[in-house]
Amino acid sequence: MIRKYCALLVASFAMIAGLVVMTPATTHAACNTRFLTFPTWYNGLTDGNCQINSPEKEGGIQKFILKIALNFLDIMFQAVAYITVGYILWGGFKYVTSFGESSDIVLARQRILNAIIGLVIAMVAAGIVNYVGSILK
User: Fold this and answer.
1) Buried b / exposed e across 62-77, counting CB within 10 Å, b at 16+?
2) Euclidean distance between CA atoms 97 and 107, whole angstroms
3) CB within 8 Å of 38: residues ≥ 6 apart
4) Theoretical Cys-Cys bridge with 122: which of 61, 80, 103, 129, CB 3.0 to 4.6 Å?
5) Which tens digits make up the pLDDT trace of 45-74?
6) Among 97, 122, 120, which residue's Cα sits nearest to residue 108?
C-alpha cells in the first residue's frame, strides 16, 4: 500500500515539474522569445528592431552560419537534457514500483545512473556551446 502512495507521489511530482517547466518566462524583447528555455535559431543575429542582420554585419558568412549552428546545437542539447530528466523520473518510478524484485531494482538503478551520466554530458556540452557562442558575440 505504501508503494502505491510513493508511486502516486512520484507521478504527482513529475506532473508538477512539467507544469513548472512549461510556465512562460518574461522576455525583454519580442525577438528573444523562448520555448521551454530553447533559444530561437536566430539568437544573437538580430539588431535592436528584431530584424536578422545580414552575414556581412555579423563578420562574414562563416561566422553567421556558425552562430546558427551553435543555436541548433544548444537546442539539441537542451532537448537531450529534458529527455534524460524524463528517464530519471521513469527510473525512479520503476524503482519505487519494483516491489522488492532484485532484477527490477538493478535495472531501475542502472537506468537512473545512465540517465544521470547523459544529463551531465548534455549539460557540459550545452555549457561549451554557450561559451563558444558568447565568444562569437
Assistant:
1) eebebbbebbebbbeb
2) 12
3) 74, 75, 78, 79
4) 80
5) 777 777 777 777 777 888 788 888 888 888
6) 97
Q: Which of 80, 68, 79, 63 is nearest to 121 (CA)?
A: 80
Residue 31 burial (CB count, 10 A)? 17
Q: C-alpha angle 63/65/69, rounded to 5°?
A: 115
* Residue type at 50 in one-letter notation: C
Task: Kindly state the cell numbers that stand for 14.
Answer: 513529475
Q: Which residue has the cell 549552428?
A: 69
pLDDT at 26: 44
**pTM summary value:** 0.58
